[in-house]
Every structure is written in C-alpha cells, then in structure tokens.
Amino acid sequence: MKQPILNQEEKKEVSKKFEDRKELYQEWKGKRKEIDKLANTLHITIQDIAYALRENHGIYTQTAEYLGIPRPVLYRKVQTTPSLMQVMREIEEENKDTVEFRLVEQAKNGVLPAVIYYLKTKGADRGYGSDAIQVNSTDVTNAASLIEILHAARKKNELEDKSKEIEGQWQVKSEESPVRQS
C-alpha cells in the first residue's frame, strides 16, 4: 500500500501555494512570454508537480491550471523529468484499472455496448474477436439474444478452424502417399 506523500497540514500548505499561483496565472492568461517568465520565478518542485498530477488524474490542462503555470511548460517539464514520466505511467495505469472496472460492472449489468466491447477485446482468445462479432445493435433486442449470437459466432470460428486443420492434415497425407501410375 502506498504511503501518502504529504500529511494533512502539508496538503493545506501546498493547496494554499497552488491557489496563489492559480490567481497569478489567471492574471497573466493569454500573455505567453510573461507567463513563461512567471512560471520560471515560481520555483515549483518535482514533488509539487507529482502531487498536482495525481490530484488531477494526470490531465495536463487541469494540472497546469492547478499549479498556476502554462500547460506547455508543465508538459515540457514532465517529458524531460524521468521521475515525473514514471508518475504519469502510474496514473495512466490507475486510470485504466478504474475504467476497466466500470466496463466490467456495466457488462455484468447487461449493458449491451459494454458486453460487445468487452468480448471483442478480452474474449478474442475464446473466439469472440472483432471478426466474429458483426452485430448491428438494432438487430439485438436484449443481452440474452446477443449471447446466443456470440456463441453461434464462436462455434462458427471453431468449425472453420477445425476444417482448416483437417484440410491441412489431408494435404500432408496426400503428399506422403505414393502416386500410382497405370
């Protein structure tokens, strides 16, 4: 389990610092050169940026506004700092986990687009790949009939695979057997 980077008192102090910067940013918004000069004078630490990125789920625009600096300045800083790149990778993985959890919950509740998307992406190893599922959602009235269609598509793929396998075995046997000449 991850330890919090800052305690409550430190969080309040950082939040106050960010609010001050946000006000300055709003004053200078639209004036690129002045903003860059301002951003350089604020001396934002790597820890400040990492904290702000986590608080804003890795969204650059929100994080830059939170820090009171221009988005391009933040982006350049993250791209040139290995520890911040690692923070962004961690945030992206957390975001993917969150979205995937919600997708699975939707599929469990029978939400048709979620069921189709999940099976197309995660069910390919069971024959539910994107080629197997070509269903217009207006053709399907409920999740039960979709499941029947998906099972039929899976069966079709299995039969095609078996047919190819038998065909390949037959070709090998016909090449091995001697040809009779009359």
Summarize this, please?
The chain has 182 residues and is an all-alpha fold. It contains eight helices and no strands.
Structure description:
Helix content is 72%, strand content 0%. With 182 residues, the protein is mostly helical. The chain has two domains: 8-91, no CATH class; 110-176. Helix 4 (60-67) crosses helix 5 (71-79). The chain is elongated, with a radius of gyration of 28 Å.
Features of this protein?
single chain; 182 residues; mainly alpha
Total domain modules: 2
Could you list the spans in which at least 5 consecutive residues all have pLDDT below 50? Answer: none
Strand content: under 5%
What is the number of helical segments per DSSP (H or I, 4+ residues)?
A: 8
Q: Percent helix among the residues?
A: over 70%
Any idea what the shape is?
elongated
Give the helix/strand layout.
Blueprint: H1 8-28, H2 32-42, H3 46-55, H4 60-67, H5 71-79, H6 82-108, H7 112-122, H8 143-176
